[in-house]
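Final report, closing paragraph on structural work. Over the funding period we assembled a curated collection of sequence-structure pairs, and we close with a single example.
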Amino acid sequence: MKASKYTIATKKETPADAEVISHQLMIRAGLIRKLAAGIYSWMPMGLRVLQKIENIIRQEMNAAGGQEVLLPAVQPAELWQESGRWHEYDDGLLLKFQDRHKRDFCFGPTHEEVITNLVRDELKSHKQLPVNYYQIQTKFRDETRPRFGVLRSREFTMKDAYSFHISEASLKETYQDMHTAYSKILQRMQLDFRAVQADTGGIGGSASMEFHVLAESGEDKIAFSTDSAYAANVELAEAIAPPEKDGEMLNPDEFETPGVKTIDQLCEFIQVTADSTVKTLLAKGSKTKLVALVLRGDHQLNPLKAEKMPEVANPLTLAEEADINAETGADLGSIGPQGLDVPVLVDRSAYAMMNFTAGANKTGFHIRNLNWERDVKVTAVYDLRDVVEGDPSPDGRGTIKFKRGIEVGHIFQLGDKYSRAMNATVLDDSGKSVVMQMGCYGMGVTRLVGAIIEQHHDDKGIVWPDSVAPFQVIMIPVNAHKSEAVQKATNKLYGQLKDAGIEVLLDDRESARPGAKFADAELMGIPHRCVIGDRSLEKGVIEYVNRRTGESMEIAPDELITQLSL
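Its predicted structure, as stored:
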């Protein structure tokens, strides 16, 4: 491709609304242009990258047994009403509209309903299973706050796949196949990533795994082990119970704490550390009006964990101050777990404590030297808290550390959530109608472009991995319009590269000075650069520069193809 006939739309200025480096560089390198909030046009250079990513995904999905389909982007409301998600899907993210006949439709944010409708009509026997259909298609989610360029946009390209099975065992096999395929896809893009345990959220199902590209710009916090492959979304990471303390139980001692309303104030008042105190939160119960949630003073309640406990109402709802006062007889800053006429749920770490301090259920008073069972009757002990750095890893190897991640993929074991609601059945080997088991596997294609840049850039611009680069090599002739030798050598080498199947961009722009061409090449991140000039040609060589390492060397023109293959 010759630059004189190709759109190179680089910019020197950094857009004011671009908060993260990937957004900045995608605009400056001429990959995308903003049309509206969270909606972007893809320029020729950006589209080449996008297509490279799509091709890698296709190759690995096909190798894992996937069959590509293309489903409608516009979906009728009836299908979403049938699944029960028309009024439930992620609180307003569903873009709804009506056609000329006043029939309700939506622009698909995902395709569980559409694929289930297709499969229930096409598949009739267990002999046709398992099957895994995937597509790469434009989606739309009406994000409240689109930000970070393509990392959180409203319109985006996504690969979504859906598998159907006669049994849960078969579903788990495909789920593992998709885990392997996703890992291969991200490895081919040279990404540092973690596969983490995750919540199923609005999609539903019994199990899910997120794939996160590690980056400071990531919106998700990932908990991972220092010594193993364990990783989980921080909301899902298990907090291991510490060993229970041994020692003498001291006698309870009630004391006055005027004006003390927080754990920090209590610690300062009596000169103790927060890990010797407990805090008690009252929430709405599933079978009782209230339930008490008790944690160590230096720990934070994990709402996702709490609302999964059978005694707790879902969603988790903390009690109103009036209800708290009615139950305990005390203001918020003075409540404790002892003497409550409600279920008392204690976090594992709190339950390992002895002689702890808590509110006395009397405004302006606390009690030290409380102990479980002797002074506080416990209904159940659960994992209720957020993990913290330094906690032991749940797999017994290493300790927990935190990093931020960009979610680029999510796989689910959906079970029969959609197939049962939409009556998607097949006949088993005995002729009995059986509801199919279902899996769902999503990967953000446009988001991957941003995630790659977040990990692969320097102060000069993008540094593309070879597998997704828009071009493999850029050729920059110096003063070719003045030198017949440079023109001849350039044209010869350009032809040789094309014949070898190498994607090459020849920067033959007469309007751009050599310095500007070099800057554009670095900004666009093309992995390899060769410079052809009279001085080097006199020595029978050209200059080769590796974008990633910055290594520069003089090589014979005929050796360039060999160098590119190293």
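The chain is about 25% helix and 30% strand. The chain has a mean pLDDT of 94. We thank the funder for supporting this effort.
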